[in-house]
Amino acid sequence: MVDQFSTAAEAFGAAVKRFTSRDEAIAALRGIVAGRPAAASELPAEVRQQLGDLAHVPLHALDRAEVGISFASAGIAATGSLLLELSDPASRSATALPPIHAAFLKASAIVPDLYALSDTLSALLSSPGSRYLSIITGPSRTADIERVLTIGVHGPKELHILILEGE
After folding, report:
1. What range(s) does the LUD domain occupy (predicted)?
2. Which is the most buried residue in 28, 60, 95, 119, by most CB within 10 A?
3. Mind giving me the DSSP string for 66-122?
């Protein structure tokens, strides 16, 4: 299913890389960030710790961030899409405002299609507290001006998906 996901995501313009360890993925992320200001959305504590000062832009200053970093809850193989589940509006903005979005995705979280996520989505939407669910497929694209396709106008121009195969 990882191959199907990768092929579909790349067809929509995402850059997909697979890693056998989180350390390798973090090293690749450092290359993507390449010294640019970065902000992280809600990440698992162990990932945030491994990032160290890599994501140093606070969420209230997203206008300075050139890279947004997230951790996807699931991947949809049929479309190469990411499911992001966030509870903080600023975290959601970290995946939409910077021109580059880098997302971690566990290979074990990839499902065949959207129907396979129906129980998960139902549980998330009925749980207490606010949730922001986003399904992202490739970099931002629009053709609302004279029907000319443009990448990166209403969101990130680049989407990098870092698949963690060992998790």
Report:
1. 62-164
2. 95
3. SEEEEE-SEEETTTTEEEEEES-HHHHHHTTSSSEEEEEEEGGGEESSGGGGHHHHH
